[in-house]
Amino acid sequence: MKNNDVVQLLNEMAVLLEIQGTDKFKPKAYSRAARSIASLGEDIEAIAARGELTGIPGVGKSLADKIDAYLKTGSINQLEQLRKEIPVKVRELDAIPGVGPMTMKLLYENLGITDLESLEKAVKEGQLKGLKGIGQKTVDQISEGIQLARAGFGRTLLANAFPIVEGIQASLREIQGVRKITIAGSFRRRKETIGDIDVLVVTDEAEQLMNAFVHLEGVADVLAHGPTKSSVRLASGIQVDVRVLPADSYGAGLQYFTGSIDHNVHVRTIAQKRGLRLSEYGLYRGDEQVAGREEDAIYSAVGLDYIEPELREDKGEIEAAQHHELPKLIELKHIRGDLHTHTDKSDGANSIEEMLDAAARKSYEYYCISDHTKSLTIARGMTEEQILASISEIDEFNSSGRWKMRVLKGAEVDILSNGNLDISDEVLQQLDVVTASVHSKMKDTKEAITDRVCAAIQNRHVDILGHPTGRLLLKRSEYEVDLERVFETARASGVIMELNSHPERLDLNDGNLRAAKRYGLKIAINTDAHRIGELDNMQFGVFQARRGWLEAKDVINTYPLKEMIKLLRK
Predict the structure, then answer these.
(1) 75: left (phi over 0), alpha (psi -120 to 50) or beta
(2) 361: helix, strand or coil
(3) pLDDT in tens, 339-367
(4) In whole angstroms, how far apart are CA 272 and each of 268, 278, 304, 322, 378?
């Protein structure tokens, strides 16, 4: 799928048009179209083939023609012209938290800054001081953002890697002689971000496979081309390595190339103590292969239960496998509902009815509407009066029988700087699910933020703490907060911790999820969906939950409705 490529190109055009400044409406139009395409649940090439691009919200005929041109030729003439006129590396600067379109324009026009390197130099030399709208706090934020961006260079969000992986697999499966294909590495471990993509193949026609691979659509550079291993760099910048393995070594290769390094070293050490030698080609006693064809046989032969890929980080999983104490990890099929979603009553893109129809197609047992509240004006947060009107509307929906699932009345309530909530208790008590979240003043001290969060979750109406650390992967670090104190307060108050499934959040991280589980806290895996397509992000929350050792019993929205409601009640 080229959806993500199109989204990036449209966002780049929006920024360059903003810098150009000739038309104040076009940048917003391109941004809106990019958001719509980002939430599509279908391959944009399939939509283009049907001639239905203009059916995408925000995509008119002119924009549809540009998208169609890109899909056919790999470029957009207007974008190429803009790049010549304005040599700003938008994607590079956009990776820096605190640097948006207006800041890029300001930096380019006043200092000639076009990329991360020139921005970093300007920050070090103090050139940003004195620019209109840029104070010391902004300079510090940009400086911190540069380091965060550098750390993220070469990394790709797991969600963005999925369509790339699916395209590679589909192309290689069409090649005659291919018997097995598996994506290994950090992708198979479902890490939040990935580096390279490792593809393992069993085939009878290795030469034909490798020739086809290096000529796949989207390949920008061929880094290596051999009979058993080839490497390419895609136009997106991601490196893809393909290895051909003998069938008798496939399981061993899968274990080896899935990693992590620390996990593999630990397993090899155990094998050595048993007089065995483990490599990517198999498990051997002397020259005799003991195991290699099947991955689970590798673990069994060294005295371990099979370890799911998501757990292979050498963080206790090997010891658990030795003592038959591995968790029975949660699966997507266990999820019965979504407890945090938005509609166009605040900053969502779809109506309540549209979101409910989409949720019903997932056969959910329950589904919560939880729009933003009034303090978050940028998200058109709802007032008490608007929430009460929504409550009445949802009551009517439940009475109508149109949807078999129970529609829950909720809100994502803003945690104010003093720890209070921005909606009165009288209104909160009428809601089924109250999610409290921090959306502002994330640069406060650790003590201040911890006090603020702990005060909020002690409110007897709060059910869930939303995206508890506030991070945005590759864009914004976690705010400083004492999670141990938060977990202790949550346990005493009966508050659920959210695992936010948005691919840029995946908040809590895997380590924090394990800590929350040790405290005996329940987790809610929610999508925080702002449009229909984002309901599919539930899978990424489940991946993260598995990395955090969570079982179905640890997750509140795996329980039937009545039991789930009881767990929410303090």
Answers:
(1) beta
(2) coil
(3) 999 999 999 989 999 999 999 999 999 99
(4) 6, 8, 14, 16, 59
Phi then psi dihedrals of residue 425, to 5 deg: -60, -35
Better-predicted residue by pLDDT, 568 or 523? 523
Continuous segment of H or E residues that includes residue 411: strand 406-414
Can you read off the two tokens belonging to residue 498?
A: 């959210």
Range of the domain at 452: 332-568
Where does a domain end: 111, 127, 152? 152
DSSP-derived 3-state class of residue 157: strand
Q: How many CB atoms lie within 10 A of CB 224?
A: 12
In a domain, 531, yes or no: yes
What's the pLDDT tens digit per position in 81-115? 999 999 999 888 887 877 888 888 899 989 999 98
For the cut 90, the answer to whether the pLDDT of residue 183 exceeds it is yes
Q: Are residues 61 and 177 in the same domain?
A: no
Per DSSP, what are the bridge partners of residue 197? Answer: 240
| Per-residue pLDDT, 331 | 98
Query: Which residues make Cβ contacts (< 8 Å) with residue 376, sequence separation at least 6?
Result: 346, 414, 439
Of the CA atoms within 13 Å of residue 413, those in its CB half-sphere come to: 30
Angstrom distance (rounded) from CA 158 to CA 190: 7
Check which CATH number belongs to the domain holding 33 and give it.
1.10.150.110
Q: How many domains does the chain have?
A: 4
- Residue 551 in domain: yes
> Looking at the structure, do residues 467 and 510 belong to the same domain, yes or no?
yes
